[in-house]
Amino acid sequence: MSTFAKTIKQYEKECLKNDIPAETVMAYLLEISQRERYDLFMHIDDEMPEELAKEFRVGMERILKQEPMSHVLGYSWFYGYKMIVNEDVLIPRCETEELCALILSRIDEIFPTQETVECADVGTGSGAIAITVAKEESRVKMHATDISEEALVTARQNAKNNEVDIDFTAGDMLQPLIDANRHLDVLISNPPYIPQDEQMETSVVDFEPHVALFGGEDGLKFYRMIFKDCKKVLNKKAFMAFEMGWDQRERMSKLVEELLPDARYEMLKDMNGKDRMLFVYFNC
């Protein structure tokens, strides 16, 4: 048996040897022990219970092999909501929480009195964005699409677990929305935007679905598809919200101006000061 302090220190050293942030150890331990940080520190010199120690060591060995902590846990926290994650869906990132906050703000600004706001999340993956926006804004009627049936199984379970009603449909990009003759106020997408030949970390490329990562030769393939078809599903007054690569500002500007010359757009920085969000406005 070993104390919490000794076990944490041991695995922090192992993490650093494997280029994994040392704080991963504490984050994982807090999750599986369901304890608050202050409570754990109050008992840091206590012996770790045998069952907890076993679960912790098994999980940490997987993490040391570059498996994402969220996959080891089977879930990830997003905007305060618990989301199942697995090999079929992309693990939601904190930058995407910022996108959700801005979407909610724009809905309030642009549609302050509208009773129902028709929204769609294209390429929904785990459903994190769709679920968050629908949970946080009661006026939203949310539709969500994904080409992966496996991803939709996870998204539907996440919606059920978080007690929110979302219309999920399988299909490629906007096609299910076009086929259903949807008329949207808000179109949201966090599409694959990594160029096909870009080098990725092992924890990403070996454990997350490539269909959710790579966006063609220049990373803009799926934006082009959406920009070309968006007017088929958008109301006259509407906006679109996207996550984008931090280094895509110039190429994205040219693409918007080329394919959507009548739209107004803005690119917003994330908390790290990087261009990560694109908003496109029509008549608003």
Automatic annotation (TrEMBL):
PROSITE patterns: N6_MTASE
Keywords: Methyltransferase, S-adenosyl-L-methionine, Transferase
Keyword Methyltransferase found: yes
Catalytic activity: L-glutaminyl-[peptide chain release factor] + S-adenosyl-L-methionine = N(5)-methyl-L-glutaminyl-[peptide chain release factor] + S-adenosyl-L-homocysteine + H(+)
Methyltransferase small domain sequence ranges: 111-198
Record-annotated Release factor glutamine methyltransferase N-terminal domain positions: 22-74
Keyword Endoplasmic reticulum on entry: no
Stretches of the chain forming a coiled coil according to its record: none
A biological process from GO: methylation
Enzyme Commission designation: 2.1.1.297
MF (Gene Ontology): nucleic acid binding; peptide chain release factor N(5)-glutamine methyltransferase activity
Domain of life per record: Bacteria
Name of this chain's protein: peptide chain release factor N(5)-glutamine methyltransferase
